Structure formats: C-alpha cells, structure tokens
Amino acid sequence: MIPHARRGGIKAVLVIALAIFAGAFFYNVTTAGSVATSFGIATGNTLEGLVGAVLVPGARAPVVVSEEMVSEMRPGSVVVDISIDQGGCIATAHETTHSNPVYEAHGVLHYAVGNIPGAVPNTATYALTNATLPYVVALADGVREAVLGHPELLGGINVAGGAVTNGAVAKFLGVDLVSAAEAVGI
Predict the structure, then answer these.
(1) 8-state DSSP, 168
(2) Do 94 and 119 touch, CB atoms closer than 8 A?
(3) Of 24, 54, 80, 116, which residue is the least packed, with the fewest Cβ within 10 Å?
C-alpha cells in the first residue's frame, strides 16, 4: 500500500515514473507489470488520476497500463500520457493536440498532447538552451574531448565514428553494436 494512504474512500493519483499521493513522492516503477498492483492500489474504481511517463531510449515506450485498468477507473478520472511522443504507455491513449487536447474513453478523460513544452515555446527554449549549451560548447572541441570533460555525454551517443552505439538503434537497423567508449576512442 502507498504509505499514508487512507483506507476507504482512497483518492489516489498514480504516476508511472513516480507515485504522488497527498503531496509526497514515493517509489520508482521499473517494470511493466501490473502498475496498480506494484503500488498496492486496489482496482474497483479507486484510481482517480494516472500520469504515464515511461521512456526507453531509442525505442517505443512499452504499454504498461491496459485498457482494462483504465476501464476500472472511476468515471470522471483523468489520464495523462506524457510518453505519447514515443507511442504512449497507456493502451487507451492516442496523440492529441494543444488545440484539441482531451477526449473521453471508458468515462475517463484523456490528455495525450505530443510535445507538451510546445505550449510554452519561449520558456521551453530557454530551459533547453540553459541545460544543453555547456555540452554544445564542449562538443565544438570534438566528441572525444567533450566526453572526457563530460562523461555523462557517453550515454547519449547513438552513432560515432561510423558505428552504432545504441542497442535499440543497432537492433532496428540490423547492424553490430559498438560501445560508445570504443566508438569515440576512449
């Protein structure tokens, strides 16, 4: 059971990447098993909100919430699928737009807008620029030098020196996988 959850009349919002209940954060979900069971939330119309945010770098997001699970939510509940850009992690979600962001399925309101930051483009651009500019400056000196100065970049390399370094990409293309460190010569 989610810590501090009240018995009877439970009001819960489940976030796939992070559960939020009564203003506190709990648990990281790392499996695609029964999400409700993983959090100890009983079925039978107890779940009022669901936010799905699953990312598998280089691949489609797995569907971790079935149509049956959504159909068991309370009527009027809300589903938000942040993963919709990568195919979605909620079976009943399909991509919507900022101009027409919601629809209803099984009595549950769905929000699955692709590119959510597009709603605030200036703010999103400044945030992205502030976060990435140091890496762009480092990359100007070469990939090898950038990785030596910023080891966290190594995990973001998909292709280097003519080699594919991302497992999902290599599998999709049917080519050999090479370690990113080997591809950049470190």
Answers:
(1) H
(2) no
(3) 24
CB 26 within 8 A of CB 63: no
Q: Which segments of 64-182 are extended strands (E)? A: 78-81, 102-105, 108-111, 159-160, 163-164
User: Which residues are CB-neighbours of 133 under 8 A, at least 6 positions away?
Assistant: none
DSSP structure class, residue 5: P
Per-residue pLDDT of 51-61, as tens digits, reads: 888 887 777 88
pLDDT digits (tens, 9 = 90+) for 83-138: 999 999 999 999 999 999 999 999 999 999 999 888 899 999 999 999 999 999 99
Name the more confident of 57 and 74. Answer: 74
Domains and CATH numbers, the chain: 12-117 (3.40.50.720), 121-184 (no CATH)
